[in-house]
Amino acid sequence: MQPKFYAEGPAVLIERQERSLIIADPHFGVEADLHRHGLHFQSSTDSRLARLLSVIELADPDYLIVLGDLKHMIPNVTYQERTEMPEVLRKIRRETEFRLAPGNHDTGLEHYLEKGELLPMNGALIDGTGYFHGHTIPDPALLGHLILCGHHHQVVNIYDTVGCALRGTPGYLLAEIDPSIWGPVPADPTRVLLVPAFYELAGGMDVRLIPGNKISPIAKAILTETGEVFLKDGTYVAPFTELRPDHLEGI
């Protein structure tokens, strides 16, 4: 099984018996929260949804799996989300089946979802691959498999000997994790693929800072010596341990 990456997303296609298209953290409705903080933007839901629908057309999946934070506001649902979410879901369902691995921002969304669309909070194993948002301990059934998760909003910074060559671009981290901190260890290794945010203004944390971070149980379990980093189009960057530090750190 070789994942296929779509830079237009970022999105990734996993194909085994079925074709699963995966995105993470689209944060539809984020503009309402920005407005509350004095930052006023028109809703970008239409353009973000159009980008998602174009990736669905390119990938032609059996279903779309969103790795959490489909919506933005917590703990309530804003007027923007109440008015826009039904149309977002209608247009997605028109193109493909839909599954949501609920994230910490997805409170209240169950009222908009159809039967079978909402996965368990701790994840689900679908066609041999695990899927969950990433803010909880994964279900034991996912261990021993490849697990895809969002939540971390990681970005990749690439530095050369004279300074910064690339800063803040969404990227992927693939690594094994140590599940012994949660319980019995399965016979097969457990790998995670951290999927970057679909929300175009998400920004995020330098991927070098995620392992061992308190941001999630997964982050604490990452085995850095096994890590590999990829750009959003699937371009291989480097082993995690060979990433250069930011030359401005400590200044």
Secondary-structure map:
Elements: E1 4-6, E2 11-15, E3 19-23, H1 30-36, H2 45-59, E4 63-66, H3 79-95, E5 97-100, E6 124-126, E7 129-132, E8 146-149, E9 154-160, E10 163-177, E11 190-194, E12 205-206, H4 217-221, E13 228-231, E14 236-239
Parallel strand pairs: 3-4, 4-5, 7-8, 8-11, 9-12
Antiparallel strand pairs: 1-2, 2-3, 6-7, 9-10, 10-11, 10-13, 13-14
Helix pairs in contact: 2-3
Give an overview of the whole structure.
- The structure is a single chain.
- The protein is built from 4 helices and 14 strands.
- With 251 residues, the protein is an alpha/beta fold.
- The strands form 2 sheets. Strands 6, 7, 8, 9, 10, 11, 12, 13 and 14 form a 9-stranded mixed sheet that branches.
- Strand 4 (63-66), helix 3 (79-95) and strand 5 form a beta-alpha-beta unit.
- What percentage of residues falls in helices of 4 or more residues? 10-25%
Choose one word for the global shape: globular
Give me the secondary-structure category.
alpha/beta
Radius of gyration: 18 Å
Overall average pLDDT: 89
The total beta strand count reads 14
- What is the first-to-last residue Cα distance? 44 Å
How many separate helices?
4
How would you characterize the largest beta sheet? Answer: 9 strands, mixed
Following the backbone from N to C, one meets helices and strands in this order, namely EEEHHEHEEEEEEEEHEE
Estimate the strand proportion: 25-35%
- Low-pLDDT segments, ≥5 res: none
